[in-house]
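Can anyone check this?
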Amino acid sequence: MDKDEQLLSVTRWRKKPKPGRTTRLGDAVEQLMETSVSPRQARFGPVAELWNQLLPAELCRHCKIDDISGGQLKVLVDLPPYMHELRLCSSELLEQLQLRCPRARIKEIKFVIG
């Protein structure tokens, strides 16, 4: 039996999808947006906006928010000198984020070179 015949025999035994179990991609994306992305955006979107307002433009160009989870705001910084600058003002940044974005429940800011 050559490879084409083997492939054909294997595909014959594969289970066919049931007609009622298929989901349109648009429906799946919509559900994902409603259950995961939109609530997260509503909760953390203001953090990104405030972050850009609090930092001077020069610092904004050298860092970006990577993740917010478990009360930790993770910020990627491109160069060590900018990380040092951000660490110096991190307590003020954290205080403002907690005050103006309480829904995010940020307890800590972590800076990472990336």
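Reply from J.R.: I decoded it. The helical segments are 3-13, 25-54, 57-60, 80-88, 90-100.
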